[in-house]
Specification:
Layout (H helix, E strand, L loop, with lengths): L1 E6 L4 H11 L5 E5 L6 H7 L3 E4 L8 H12 L6 E6 L2 E3 L3 H11 L3 E10 L6 H10 L13 E4 H7 L10 H11 L3 E12 L6 H21 L5 H24 L3 H22 L4 H30 L11
Parallel strand pairs: 1-2, 1-4, 2-3, 6-8
Antiparallel strand pairs: 4-7, 5-8, 6-7
Length: 318
């Protein structure tokens, strides 16, 4: 297989990512999105061919992956692994993934399990690890790290490089429409280092997610419906209702507050079953509820940008 690694100011994480993939890949392309930490020199020193994105166009992970794939040229391998610079490929994964694609010719790609390296270091890390646990099967949702069949990726047209988030979900949808399956299997694929230790960073990540919900829905009506609906209800409709009730019937505000309390408590109970201590479970559930407000803000950013015909700019959260 060949490998495309993308990154922006990943530092030592990039060194670990390149080291892990180099033992399995015939060729490694590293695509850099304007790093100022010496990432390009590091990748070159480790034997990777490097591509530096032209800053005249907006950066995006989608664009980086597309340009990395193009840099492999017509002699590219039958399978190409895309991997982010903050991910460490697990030793048994390449063999498992290759075997799966050989046994499932209808599969255009295969993804395995993400695991956060240090979920115990912050509640934000723990929540990210929880988010990664996607359902398996032939119609799984997108994750940016996966092993793809080169022909399937080429036929799909690659990623939509103007998207700053959910570009993987969007590409997976088009690949399925082209007749391929996008498989998720229950096998360790990568260790990921999100390194979120402050509310502000996590909040920007949730804003970015909201932006992706809106754009994905605009491109593929019906996609991300549940996520958009939750943001609109919990982040917008219920607060608006509370404001109206406060003006015309103040006791009704208590009912709205009760809805939030019930939802947070139910989520906390789910987290308790996953092993979190009571206090941490309640904090995590509270953050999940707060994320709906951040998601709604991100959705608004997308539509405001679209109305003004502006290019999207990456939303960095680290």
């Amino acid at each position: 297989m060949d490998a495309v690694v993308i990154g922006r100011n990943e530092g030592q994480r990039l060194a670990h990512a390149l080291q892990a993939v180099a033992t399995h890949a015939r060729r490694v392309i590293y695509v850099d999105s304007g790093s100022n930490d010496g990432s390009v020199a590091l990748a070159q020193a480790m034997g990777a061919k490097t591509v530096a994105l032209d800053p005249a166009r907006p950066f995006s992970a989608a664009r980086a992956r597309n340009e990395g794939f193009a840099a492999l040229g017509p002699e590219r391998a039958a399978f190409v692994h895309f991997i982010d610079g903050d991910c460490i490929l697990q030793p048994d994964w390449p063999q498992t993934a290759h075997a799966f694609l050989h046994d499932h010719p209808e599969a255009g790609l295969v993804i395995g399990r993400y695991a956060e390296e240090q979920p115990e270091h912050s509640l934000y890390n723990w929540l990210t690890n929880w988010e990664w646990q996607k359902p398996t099967g032939p119609d799984t949702g997108g994750i940016g790290t996966f092993l793809a069949r080169s022909t399937a990726f080429e036929q799909t047209g690659g990623f939509r490089d103007t998207m700053i988030a959910a570009e993987d979900d969007e590409m997976f949808l088009r690949m399925r429409k082209a007749g391929w399956q996008t498989w998720g299997i229950d096998a360790p694929m990568v260790h990921h280092d999100v390194a979120l230790h402050a509310f502000g960073n996590w909040n920007r990540r949730m804003i970015r997610a909201g932006h992706s919900f809106a754009e994905l829905g605009a491109l593929h009506p019906g996609a991300a419906n549940a996520s958009r609906r939750r943001a609109l209800i919990w982040g917008g409709a219920l607060p608006a209702l509370a404001l109206v009730l406060a003006a015309v019937w103040p006791p009704g505000v208590i009912g709205v507050a009760a809805l939030y309390a019930i939802s947070v408590t139910r989520q906390a109970l789910r987290f308790r079953h996953m092993g979190l201590a009571p206090g941490r479970a309640m904090q995590a559930a509270g953050l999940v509820m707060l994320s709906k407000f951040s998601n709604l803000w991100g959705m608004g950013q997308y539509w405001w940008r679209r109305l003004r015909r502006q290019d999207a700019q990456i939303i960095e959260y680290r």
